[in-house]
Fold:
Amino acid sequence: MSMLLKSVLFLSMLTLAWASHTDVYITNSLEGREDLHIHCKSKDDDLGPHVLRINQTFKISFSTNFFFGTLFFCSFQWGNGHLLHFDVYDQKRDSNKCKECKWSIKKDGPCRDELELDSTYTRKCYEWNH
Ligand SMILES: *[C@@H]1O[C@H](CO)[C@@H](O)[C@H](O)[C@H]1NC(C)=O
Structure:
């Protein structure tokens, strides 16, 4: 194999190792079955406003990169309530907790099952951003 080909292969493998595909799912699990209005963004993308009926799911797919801290943040609103905010993906917080991050949106905040060191999952609930 030529030196150039070897270098190209090596660089491709490094890039693959650094870029990792991630899916974030947001499901309307509101106790009162209200419609959930969401609007998610990252630094580079505006995913637009969406309305989720009870149990409907919105999916966000992206690649995280070793060098850049990926952050997706959303607003949430139902009924006549306030606009609430939450970071649905924070690479620093989440990169070793989930490749498929599945949020159930409850009135007190988002919950998900998180991977523990012993490979079991534990239900964790978060508070809305302040
Ligand atoms: C939503 O999902 C939950 C859990 O799967 C289920 O118990 C409930 O009946 C569903 N609600 C509606 C309105 O479909």
Notes: Helices lie at 3-18, 91-94. Residues 63 and 96 are 14 Å apart (CA to CA). Residues 20-125 form a domain with the Immunoglobulin-like fold (CATH 2.60.40.10). The beta strands are 20-28, 36-42, 46-52, 57-64, 71-77, 84-90, 100-106, 109-115, 121-125.
